[in-house]
Amino acid sequence: MRMISSFKGQAIIVFFLCYLLSCKSNDETTLPGNNTNSDTTKVVSEIKTVLFAKGTNNYSCFRIPAIVKTTKGTLLAFAEGRKNDCGDNGDIDMVLKRSTDNGKTWGNLQVIWSDGTNTCGNPAPVVDQSTGRIYLLMSWNLGSDDIGPIDAGTSADTRRAYVTHSDDDGLTWSTPVEITSSVKKPEWGWYATGPCHGIQLTAKGAYAGRLVIPCDNIELSSAGGNGHSHVIYSDDHGATWKLGGITPDASVSPNESSVAELSNGNLMLNMRCKNNNYRRIISKSLDGGSSWNGLSTDYALVDPSCQGSLLAADISGVHTLFFSNAASSSRTNMTIKMSKDDGTSWAKSYQVCSGPSAYSDIAMISDQMIAILFETGNSSPYEGITFETIQLKDFL
Questions:
Q1: Mean pLDDT computed over 255-273
Q2: What average pLDDT does this structure show over 269-282?
């Protein structure tokens, strides 16, 4: 780790304290060890920890969180380590931190993929529950290219898709393998995996065990320049990846998306879009993500055109959906909402942070607690990435 001056170290500590005070939730903000709940056999203490702080570990900025819990119970928190600034292009590495005690403590920062001054980003992890292997889908481009020239077809290279995997709970990772030709159409310019967790289908039938990753793309200008969300999938435990369904109707420009399995085995895709009056867009699939129905607006989910995360869980035998995003017309008010009717309504919610906040991802700690990894700060949402756990009894 880079050595920092005493003054800079004090400044980082002050940021942590100011952040923790400014981002109070419905209940009083708690730090590790400060929770008074004595029922430790059922839930872990509520935790709030800044995992990736701007200006640390030789990175100027950290963005784009994703989180999963492995079959052995390890939490894996992914992010982009941006070397020179907070911009979306340039020298960006894929980084990781691990926790083996439900987020109470975290290991040192690991660099999963660094490719010189090029961009390695958009983490989209998924756990194969039958093998325990963790797959991480990622996107790559030359550090000198950015989205404008890529979509215009004038960039030196293009956006590409890669996959790596770990068989030891994230301690080590295989060399990334390119899968672009299998999952990206020639007429697409921009391409993005996730960013957020993927899923494995649990319902019995033809698609049981399928690994599904939410993605998005933008057509080359010469092909229309329209934006879409889509998924990629694997039916052979990650040996090969294929392009799944692409959302219809590009008029609202859907892009970054998150996917979840519904109670009947169908899938829901929840999408960010540019032209929909600050509301999220959804689509459903009846065939395991091979195709998607028409788009519809979820008027209960306010959104500033920012990434969000959708998660399905079994809570005491009840199929439950959770959705996290900056629930505002600006990038503020990080909130998790809960639905027990497949997203028809969102009856309960929890305000994680009223202040600046942007991208997020969520994972279940237990059937009584959820975890969120999200971008936040005092004056900007890009000052750090924070991990927090919330008890479901605190949803109102």
A1: 97
A2: 94
Q: Return the pLDDT at 28.
A: 31
| Number of independent structural domains in the chain | 1
Kindly give, in sequence order, each residue whose CB lies less than 8 Å from that of residue 242, ignoring residues fewer than 6 positions away: 182, 183, 232, 233, 234, 235
Answer for the pair 37, 27: CB distance below 8 angstroms, yes or no.
no
Where is average pLDDT lowest: 37-41, 54-58, 69-73, 238-242? 37-41
Q: How far, in Å, CA of 293 to CA of 265, rounded?
A: 15
Cα 368 to Cα 382: distance, rounded to the nearest angstrom: 29
What phi and psi, each to the nearest 5 degrees, are found at residue 16?
-55, -50
Percentage above 70 pLDDT, the chain: 89
SS3 187: coil
pLDDT at 220 over 70: yes
Phi, psi of 11 (to 5 degrees): -65, -40
Which DSSP symbol is given to 221? G
Q: Residue for token digits 């700060």?
A: 377
User: Would you say residue 1 lies in a domain?
Assistant: no
Does some domain include residue 280? Answer: yes
Q: What is the largest CA-CA distance in the chain?
A: 62
Query: What per-residue string of b and e applies to 46-58 under the rule 16 or more CB within 10 Å gives b?
Result: bbbbbbbbbbbee
Q: Which residues of 213-223 are buried (b: 16+ CB within 10 A; e: fewer)?
A: bbbbbbbbeee
CATH of the domain at 309: 2.120.10.10
pTM: 0.91
Q: Indicate the average pLDDT of the chain.
A: 90
Q: Is residue 162 part of a domain?
A: yes
Region at 278 (left for phi over 0; alpha for psi -120 to 50; beta for the rest): left
Arithmetic mean of pLDDT, 335-359: 98
Structural domain boundaries enclosing 374? 6-394
- The identity of residue 157, as a single letter, is D
Lowest mean pLDDT among 6-10, 119-123, 267-271: 6-10
Q: Annotate 361-392 with three-state secondary structure.
A: EEEEEECCEEEEEEEECCCCCCCEEEEEEEEH
Handedness of CA 196, 273, 192, 57 (dihedral sign): negative
Place of tokens 């969120």: 372
Nearest residue to 137 (alpha-carbon basis) of 87, 177, 186, 77: 177
- Per-residue model confidence (pLDDT) at position 4: 33
